């Protein structure tokens, strides 16, 4: 099963239902795509890419854009080729994005027309690209030709804090892998990749993570069950495309006949405006977010709107950062609120989420003071979670290190 197959199954049932809504949160009315529109636009893009791209085995296509009504159809159009999409944030530092593109050895990139000038000014020094570009609706396809230069992030301040031996060990590991390629399946050549991302680099040099459909589809399927998603639900695209939870948000919605709400990035940092758009105008029912995004609303707005007694929000999943304390969580909820709250945990290398824990209603409603940390909970479908001691042995109790796999 692939992501595109999940969407096509839903589209065959809910073809005339709203699949995507983009609200610019200004004087303009929101724009909508039905599932029929979504599939049609995606198929046109797939045909365009098959006509103009010579993949030669490796199928990875960059996508340089801001959030908008077309983003889901662009992603679907790429993975239908089939190819993996590699999202690139126009607002990310060019050095980091260039490092990512070069490490992926991207040969093709789709650039949103509105971002063309920014793309050219950011990357023309580092890249040679074909001036005979090809346009498709609101996109421009570039064929990339890399110069014989090294993209050296060591000049970046972030890299200076890493010890030399870590770099040496990483290099040695890469050389070892190159010497024995037969021991590793190159999923890029099997046309089974869904997307390509890079880690944030906060705990080391940014790593490229290639995610096959087989690794992310179980996440989608499990969350559909956990959140009891129906065609009546509205999910918010809270995460940037470069953050793998965005895949969950997009495809949990579009594989269920539900609607996906998208707003400009600039609106996400305007708490009052965002709260009004999400919970008054569009009645969002499912929200997956970082605690930071939730905290932006402020305690009063969270209690009066997000987690009020009359909120539209059925399920709230918090992940990507340390989960708030129970005291804080209880303070956010208005009396009578019935929103189910989940702690989700994962790492990019095991996309997207690995574990989940639903906070029991009796704990949320308890008046007893409890400052114990919220547990990680249970493995999601297709995920293996082990705790090992300092010797690497699996343990059932005590203190150890968490190992994740899929």
Automatic annotation (TrEMBL):
Residues 163-183 are annotated as: Disordered. Coiled coil: none annotated. Residues 9-396 form the AMP-dependent synthetase/ligase domain. It holds the Pfam family AMP-binding. InterPro entries: AMP-binding_CS, AMP-dep_synth/lig_dom, ANL_N_sf, Beta-ala_Activ/Resist. Gene3D superfamilies: N-terminal domain of ligase-like (3.40.50.12780). GO terms for molecular function: ATP binding; ligase activity. GO terms for biological process: amino acid activation for nonribosomal peptide biosynthetic process; fatty acid metabolic process. Keywords: ATP-binding, Fatty acid metabolism, Ligase, Lipid metabolism, Nucleotide-binding, Phosphopantetheine, Phosphoprotein. Belongs to the ATP-dependent AMP-binding enzyme family. PANTHER family: BETA-ALANINE-ACTIVATING ENZYME. This is Beta-alanine-activating enzyme. It comes from Pipistrellus kuhlii (Kuhl's pipistrelle).
């Amino acid at each position: 099963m692939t992501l595109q197959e999940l969407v096509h199954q839903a589209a065959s049932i809910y073809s005339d239902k709203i699949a995507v809504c983009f609200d610019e949160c200004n004087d303009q009315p929101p724009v909508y795509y039905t599932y029929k529109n979504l599939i049609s636009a995606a198929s046109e893009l797939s045909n365009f890419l098959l006509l103009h791209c010579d993949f030669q085995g490796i199928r990875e296509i960059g996508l340089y854009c801001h959030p908008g009504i077309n983003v889901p159809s662009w992603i679907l159009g790429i993975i239908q080729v089939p190819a993996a999409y590699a999202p690139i944030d126009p607002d990310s530092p060019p050095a980091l994005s260039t490092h990512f593109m070069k490490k992926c050895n991207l040969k093709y990139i789709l650039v949103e027309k509105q971002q063309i000038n920014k793309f050219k000014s950011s990357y023309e020094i580092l890249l040679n690209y074909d001036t005979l570009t090809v346009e498709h609706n609101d996109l421009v396809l570039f064929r990339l030709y890399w110069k014989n230069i090294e993209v050296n992030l060591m000049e970046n301040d972030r890299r200076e804090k890493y010890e030399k031996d870590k770099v040496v060990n990483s290099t040695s590991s890469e050389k070892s892998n190159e010497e024995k390629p037969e021991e590793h399946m190159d999923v890029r050549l099997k046309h089974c990749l869904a997307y390509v991302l890079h880690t944030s680099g906060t705990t080391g040099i940014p790593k490229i993570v290639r995610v096959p459909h087989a690794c992310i589809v179980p996440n989608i399927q499990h969350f559909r069950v956990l959140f009891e998603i129906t065609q009546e639900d509205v999910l918010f695209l809270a995460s940037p495309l470069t953050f793998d939870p965005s895949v969950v948000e997009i495809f949990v919605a579009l594989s269920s006949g539900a609607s996906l709400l998208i707003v400009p990035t600039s609106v996400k940092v305007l708490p009052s405006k965002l709260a009004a758009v999400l919970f008054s105008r569009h009645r969002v029912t499912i929200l997956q977010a970082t605690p930071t995004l939730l905290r932006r609303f402020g305690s009063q707005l969270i209690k009066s709107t997000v987690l009020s007694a009359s909120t539209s929000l059925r399920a709230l999943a918090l992940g990507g950062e340390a989960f708030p304390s129970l005291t804080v969580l209880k303070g956010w909820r208005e009396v009578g609120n019935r929103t189910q709250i989940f702690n989700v945990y994962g790492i990019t290398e095991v996309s997207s989420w690995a574990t989940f824990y639903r906070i029991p209603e009796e704990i949320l409603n308890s008046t007893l003071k409890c400052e114990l940390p919220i547990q990680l909970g249970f493995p999601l479908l297709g995920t293996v979670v082990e705790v090992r001691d300092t010797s690497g042995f699996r343990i059932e109790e005590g203190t150890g290190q968490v190992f994740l796999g899929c």
